Every structure is written in structure tokens, then in C-alpha cells.
Amino acid sequence: MKNNKITTALLFTILLLEVICRYFGLNTYPLYIKSKDYEYALKPNQNTVIYRNKFITNEYSMRSTSMSYKDTSVILLIGDSVINGGNLISHENLASTILENELSKVLKKNIRVLNISAKSWGPDNGAAFIKKHGLFDADIIFLIVSSHDAFDTMTFSNIVGVSPDHPDKNTLFATHTLLKKIYNRYFPKTIHEIPVQKKWNTGFNYFKNISKFNNIPIYIYIHSTKTEQKAHTYENGGKEIIQFCKKNKITIIKGIDFEQEKYYFDDIHMNDSGQLFLSKILFPYILENKNKL
Description:
One of its GO terms (molecular function) is hydrolase activity, acting on ester bonds. This protein is α/β, with parallel strands linked by helices. It contains 9 helices and 9 strands.
């Protein structure tokens, strides 16, 4: 009798844990695909919920809603996890979504702010994406970068389905995902990176040239880490990005002048308040080009 009670209690606990894990979306993670052009990207056409946050990707793997023939005014927001938001930012709270809604309201027309991003992408990933898919008739381009992006070049390491941060499929039981997350936290899997020589990221030059050739205004927003804020200066990579912009007469927006610790989840990633802040910083730069939209 005692054993039956223990078994029943155990089964109830497992079932309850599974329900809780499903409530937080541990069996509906956003998934990734490999790319021979830009290493990897989010799987296209996803509409899921993770940690109670809405996560949408369109047919081009952007963290944006589907494209439409009505998309006559287009702004490209290109970057990494800072603008992608990851699993902790719901679709409606992304800087790209906020900008899209506010601009459409103010300008009284359909404005698209396309979120072209993925975790750990550098400017060369974004450049490769544009080379493959085109500019989407863009009117303005924003590159959102951090100091490490100066030399963060593509390696084509095998991370999709290997790295816990880049899953390619979901498990049947959400509890299994929880146990795997706990295991990976204490026994992290080593991912063998392909050794590369640290060199200037070619994506910066690509976007400089393509914006000039197509007469598209380009802005580079250099995001700061909390560590850089405390030091009141960017790391060497950030300083080189600033020099590149000055040399090539590209407007640079230095986040370190405005960003605050309250906008962050961790040392680098922005929370909901940070996404709203970013949208407010970029908004006037877009409006100064409203004649192009």
C-alpha cells in the first residue's frame, strides 16, 4: 500500500512538472537551420511561445511577420541577439516591432522594420544574408553591432543541433528539455570552433559599398556592454568600428552615451525596457529620412 502511494505521488509529480514545463514552452523552442551562405538562421515560418513570450519568424527567417505586397517602405535592422531578443523578448516588445508600429502610425502608411538577425551573427552573416535574399527594396539600413563584431567572422562551425542555444528540433516531453538544460548547465558540451585568424569583419565594407551603390542611407549603432559603460569607453574593437565610420563618413550612433544598466538582462543583452529605449533612439534617424519612405 505504501509503495502504491509513493508511485502515485511520483507519477503525479512528474505529470505536474510536465504541465509546468509545457506552460513555459520547453517543448516549443524556436528552432534553427544550417546555411551554407550565412552559417545558420532561425527556421522560417515559426509561430511559437517560449517562456510565455511570442516568437515569430517569417518566410525569410527574420524575426518579423510575413512579407506583403503592401510593404512599400522598408527599413532593415541587421544584427545579432541584441536586436533578435532571443527567447526572453516577446514579439510585440522587440525594438523592430515597436518601430514598425510607431512609424506606421506617425507616417500614416505601412512601414516595415525587418529584423534580420540571429544569435552571435556578425556583419558578415548579415551581408551574406542580403547577398542571397536581396535588399527587399530597403529605404534605410541600420547595422546594430557591438565591439566584438569588429573581428567576429564566420567560421561555419557545426553548432545547429549541437549547441544548446541553437536547437534544430524539439523533444516530445518538455520535462526532458528541463533535465537537459540542467545537465548542460553543469556539464556543458564543448563545441570545437574552427580556428580563424582575427581579421576585420568584411560585412562592414559590404554594407558601406552596397548602401553607396544603391543610394540607401546607412547608420551603424554601436551597442555597449555594462562592462564598457563602467569603463566609460568601448573595447578596442568598438574603437576600430568608430574609426571605420569616421573614415567612411558613415553616421555612427554610440549607445554608450545613452545606455543604462537598467536596460540589460546581463552584460550585453537588452530587456524589454532596453528594446523600447533602442526604438526611441533610432526613431529620429528614421524620421530625418521620411522623404525616402
